[in-house]
Write a structure and sequence with these properties.
Number of strands: 3
Shape: globular
CATH architecture: Orthogonal Bundle
Largest sheet: 3 strands, antiparallel
Order of helices and strands: HHEHHEEHH
CATH superfamily: Winged helix-like DNA-binding domain superfamily/Winged helix DNA-binding domain
Helix content: 40-55%
Strand content: 5-15%
Low-confidence stretches: none
Structural class: alpha+beta
Distance between the termini: 33 Å
Radius of gyration: 18 Å
Length: 119
């Protein structure tokens, strides 16, 4: 897009946000971590149906995106905790807005099916 001063300006894209929050598991992991740091086993117990491999993959990706941090404590047995970073905590208002939207506009009989590719 060209502005009145002749300088090209791009509109902010939502594709990154959609990729980040469009995954069922990503958004649920982020939601769980809004309550504070969690261990892997706590996340797995809270996220019914997620396989250990999927949880591990999603946490690794969210860490790469700097949304989640991973802290290893040198204890016996070793303890690892996952927490939201500043970037991850910034998603709190987005999650709240999504809950508010669903409460007002969501189907009355429960969530609609996911569109293909967003599961």
């Amino acid at each position: 897009m060209i502005s009145g001063d002749g300088v090209s300006r791009r509109r902010p894209s939502t594709s990154y946000s959609a990729r980040l929050l469009g995954s069922k598991w990503n958004i649920l992991i982020i939601r769980e971590l809004t309550g504070g740091p969690r261990r892997f086993s706590e996340l797995q117990a809270a996220l019914a149906g997620i396989s250990p491999r999927t949880l591990s993959d999603r946490l690794r990706w969210l860490k790469t995106e700097k949304v989640v941090s991973r802290t290893v404590y040198s204890e016996v047995p070793p303890r690892v905790e996952y927490a939201l970073t500043v970037k991850g905590r910034a998603l709190g208002p987005v999650l709240t807005a999504m809950k508010d939207y669903e409460r007002v506009w969501g189907p009355p009989d429960g969530p609609a099916a996911h569109p293909p590719g967003l599961e």
